[in-house]
Design brief:
- This is Phosphomannomutase/phosphoglucomutase.
- Residues 6-134, 160-259, 269-378 form the Alpha-D-phosphohexomutase alpha/beta/alpha domain.
- InterPro entries: A-D-PHexomutase_a/b/a-I, A-D-PHexomutase_a/b/a-I/II/III, A-D-PHexomutase_a/b/a-II, A-D-PHexomutase_a/b/a-III, A-D-PHexomutase_C, A-D-PHexomutase_C_sf, Alpha-D-phosphohexomutase_SF.
- By secondary structure, the protein is α/β, with parallel strands linked by helices.
- It has 4 domains: 13-156, Alpha-D-Glucose-1,6-Bisphosphate, Chain A, domain 3, CATH 3.40.120.10; 160-258, 3-Layer(aba) Sandwich (Alpha-D-Glucose-1,6-Bisphosphate, Chain A, domain 3); 264-373, 3-Layer(aba) Sandwich (Alpha-D-Glucose-1,6-Bisphosphate, Chain A, domain 3), CATH 3.40.120; 379-459, Alpha-D-phosphohexomutase, C-terminal domain (TATA-Binding Protein, 2-Layer Sandwich), CATH 3.30.310.50.
- It contains 14 helices and 22 strands.
- The strands form 4 sheets. Strands 1, 2, 3, 4, 5, 6 and 7 form a 7-stranded mixed sheet that branches. Strands 17, 18, 19, 20, 21 and 22 form a 6-stranded antiparallel sheet that branches. The chain has a 5-stranded mixed sheet with strand order 9-8-10-11-12, sandwiched between helices.
- It starts with 12 loop residues before the first strand and ends with a helix.
């Protein structure tokens, strides 16, 4: 039996094609998904990577072979797949490797209503089942079952997806805005033209051609080098705002009119303010907002100032979605630019966050930098990675120094978080690499640099 732990991660399937997986494994994953979820029907979509159409079709055939009807929605963004899962009330499978290089592909799985499937919610069972069907020589034999094969059908969901989002944010009365969008040759080039159609927006498209070889730059806006073209185009065209989507277009990064990146924490606070106002107008006395523990202190401050309840979670979509379900939170945000909405089946959608920012900007006369200034109150380090031989040892060394400092608090919700009166840092171990990830924040840049450098000196000693 083959070990697939390197292929099946905590939240999804992700690996190099065909070295780590191919159509035979995709077919097995389709059958196993149906077996574990006991689904009688599922929805399947894929991104623009060269390997995606054949992998998604193999998955669909495997699912149909185990008795499930399969609705194939073809090319789509990940949040478009979540829309289809929610609207059709079906489990779903999205074939994408998000921001990874072209040779990678993967599967993001969900239950009906876009509920997440991760290692604790079915993915481990799916992996173990596929492993049991896979020999050491990588041949895969899916056992035959005595059921009537399911039917495969095609359905377009793009217009319905766009209409659903536009029903949640009113952009009809905003002032005209010039918007530069860098799709990175990813699925934003597929979704943006339909979502933006008819809105008072002067769209300047960049890299809208669907090309999973990513000829212009990686579709990973988290890396600053991939924002350079967008920043230059915003300044060159005198645009009001720039938007950058990752490969599967479920994350969105924002650039202001000066060409400067807007912190995802500031976007979280801005959207939270809008969603709090909407919830209170609908009669909710104290709406709940979820934020992970590496978002800026600004986020819970703004939420409390607006009379709502902030709830702090671990990093990761499964934790966010679980806490949103428990608390009935109206919105959740992560510093990685994942934004979650109760009205979108608690799933993450960068497009809906972008529409909120456009509505806020277009609903007043000022610039984006002025609008977001009140949501950017602290100096942040950004995430800094350090390669270490022994993660636990280095975290313990940092804890030994900071754990007993007067006036500090320490918690271990997710890694090590230490907070002083006007600063904090979080040190977390990577689950897949020998890395420690540091995020630090303080009242000003000098204090932030002092804290950052002191912690890094211990980590890298």
């Amino acid at each position: 039996m083959r070990d697939l732990k390197q292929l099946v991660k905590a939240y999804d399937v992700r690996g190099v094609v065909p070295d780590q997986w191919d159509e035979s494994l995709a077919r097995a994953f389709g059958a196993a998904f149906v077996r574990v979820t006991e689904a009688t029907a599922i929805v399947v979509g894929h991104d623009m990577r060269p390997s995606s159409p054949s992998l998604s079709r193999a998955f669909a055939e495997g699912a149909a072979g185990y008795g499930a009807d399969v609705v194939e929605i073809g090319l789509c963004s990940t949040d478009q797949l979540y829309y289809a899962s929610g609207k059709l009330d079906l489990p779903g499978a999205m074939f994408t490797a998000s921001h990874n290089p072209a040779e990678y592909n993967g599967i993001k799985l969900c239950r009906a209503g876009a509920a997440p499937v991760g290692q604790d919610t079915g993915l481990t069972e799916i992996r173990e089942l596929v492993e049991s069907w896979t020999a050491e020589d990588d041949t895969v034999t899916v056992p035959a079952v005595d059921v009537k094969p399911g039917a495969l059908s095609a359905q377009d969901s793009l217009r319905g997806y766009a209409d659903h989002l536009l029903g949640l944010v009113d952009l009809t009365a905003v002032r005209p805005l010039k918007v530069v969008v860098d799709a990175g040759n990813g699925m934003g080039g597929h979704t943006v033209p339909t979502v933006f159609d008819g809105l008072p927006l002067d769209l300047v498209p960049m890299y809208f051609e669907l090309d999973g070889t990513f000829p212009n730059h990686e579709a990973n806006p988290l890396d600053p080098k991939n924002l350079v073209d967008l920043q230059a185009k915003v300044v060159e065209t005198g645009a009001d705002i720039g938007l950058a989507f990752d490969g599967d277009a479920d994350r969105c990064f924002v650039i202001d009119e000066r060409g400067e990146p807007v912190s995802p924490s500031a976007i979280t606070a801005l959207v939270a303010a809008r969603e709090i106002a909407r919830a209170r107008a609908a009669g909710e006395e104290k709406p709940t907002i979820i934020h992970n523990l590496i978002t800026s202190w600004t986020v819970p401050e703004v939420v409390r100032e607006l009379g709502a309840e902030p709830v702090r979670t671990r990093v990761g979509h499964s934790f966010i979605k679980q806490e949103m379900a428990v608390t009935d939170a109206v919105f959740g945000g992560e510093h990685s630019a994942h934004y979650y909405f109760r009205d979108f089946w608690r799933a993450d959608t960068g497009m809906l966050a972008a529409l909120h920012v456009l509505a806020a900007l277009g609903g007043q006369d000022g610039t984006l930098s002025a609008l977001t200034a009140e949501y950017d109150r602290y100096a942040a380090s950004g995430e800094i990675n350090s390669t270490v031989a022994d993660q636990a040892d280095r975290v313990a060394a940092v804890r030994a120094v900071y754990g007993e400092l007067p006036g500090t608090t320490v918690d271990e919700l997710d890694g090590l978080t230490v907070a002083g009166p006007d600063w904090w840092f979080n040190l977390r171990a990577s689950n897949t690499e020998p890395l420690l990830r540091l995020n630090a924040e303080a009242k000003d840049a000098a204090k932030m640099a002092e804290v950052r450098d002191a912690v890094l000196a211990i980590v890298r000693a």
